[in-house]
Amino acid sequence: MNLKHSKQRDSIKEFLATRKDHPTADVVYTNVRQSFPNISLGTVYRNLTLLADLGEIARVRVGDGVDHFDYDTSPHYHFICKKCGNVIDLDMPVTGQMAAEARESFNGKIEGQMTYFYGLCSNCTPKILYKEKESLKL
Amino acid sequence: MNLKHSKQRDSIKEFLATRKDHPTADVVYTNVRQSFPNISLGTVYRNLTLLADLGEIARVRVGDGVDHFDYDTSPHYHFICKKCGNVIDLDMPVTGQMAAEARESFNGKIEGQMTYFYGLCSNCTPKILYKEKESLKL
DNA sequence: TAATAAAATAGTAATAGTTACTAATATTTA
DNA sequence: TAAATATTAGTAACTATTACTATTTTATTA
């Protein structure tokens, strides 16, 4: 199956390139519709999957039940905010240390590892004011 | 909302206790039906979710699109086989090292970390026979 | 450039996993 | 035992995703 060029696919990739927030298929869909008003959701899914299979983008699964997509295919970790759901890149070196450790104790072939972090992002972290801090006797 | 005792819930928990292979809701359903022929799938889901919320069991998400459930709530890592889909416990110490490292470079509250490994389990690893090895000139 | 082959599309239907709803039942409390 | 309320079975609804199909686009070739 040889690839054929498609404006829709270009548009999907271009859109992803502009975003650092790992949009879902649905977000891609609503945005790309501004340039292609009758693009179908199926086309978006098909192309996201194709691009991910080609290694041109990355599919990011962070346990929220929805696939996210990332233009940045270099290895890096993600953080997902339990409150707002935002997926954020972490600036932290990726090592194969844990996988290496896992291989020691496992009788099979460990090909890779999936790791992400969760909690509250800086926007969703309650900001305790000085006076409140005082009254809490911190 | 105070809890009330339920035989179905007991049965679900008892079943989970007998298994080390992290069954899905559907597997729980088909098995518990042997003791409760008209238990409904909704009851299974509701109780699995409730038990997980109570911390009596653990919900395991390993990126295969289906939730698995684990009677063992002690912290441990999982391996998922890309071929047969089995979820296997790893006998490997759990440390907070990566999360600690992540906190250094992140401006928010990292509450936890999700890590699992994937590849081929020992059953699915191709076993190369001696003669085949010879002909492959290994 | 026109004809042909093949891939991609829009639109829609179907699927899987899970959650929500409701009337009836079971459990607990008084 | 009666009242209050959690739980259930059964079913409908929902969400994310994939599959299907007739039509359109893109690429190839004559």
From TrEMBL, chains A, B:
Entry's Gene Ontology BP terms: negative regulation of DNA-templated transcription; regulation of secondary metabolite biosynthetic process
Keywords, alphabetical: DNA-binding, Metal-binding, Repressor, Transcription, Transcription regulation, Zinc
Cofactor: Zn(2+)
Taxonomy of the source species: Bacteria, Bacillati, Bacillota, Clostridia, Lachnospirales
Molecular function as annotated in GO: DNA-binding transcription factor activity; transcription cis-regulatory region binding; zinc ion binding
Keyword Hydrolase: no
Superkingdom in the source lineage: Bacteria
Organism: Parablautia intestinalis
Residues binding Zn(2+), per UniProt: C81, C84, C121, C124
Family under the similarity heading: Belongs to the Fur family.
Cofactor binding mode and count: Binds 1 zinc ion per subunit.
Chain ranges passing through the membrane: none
Keyword Zinc: yes
InterPro entries given in the database record: FUR (IPR002481), Fur_C (IPR043135), WH-like_DNA-bd_sf (IPR036388), WH_DNA-bd_sf (IPR036390)
Gene3D superfamilies: 3.30.1490.190, Winged helix-like DNA-binding domain superfamily/Winged helix DNA-binding domain (1.10.10.10)
Name recorded for this polypeptide: Transcriptional repressor
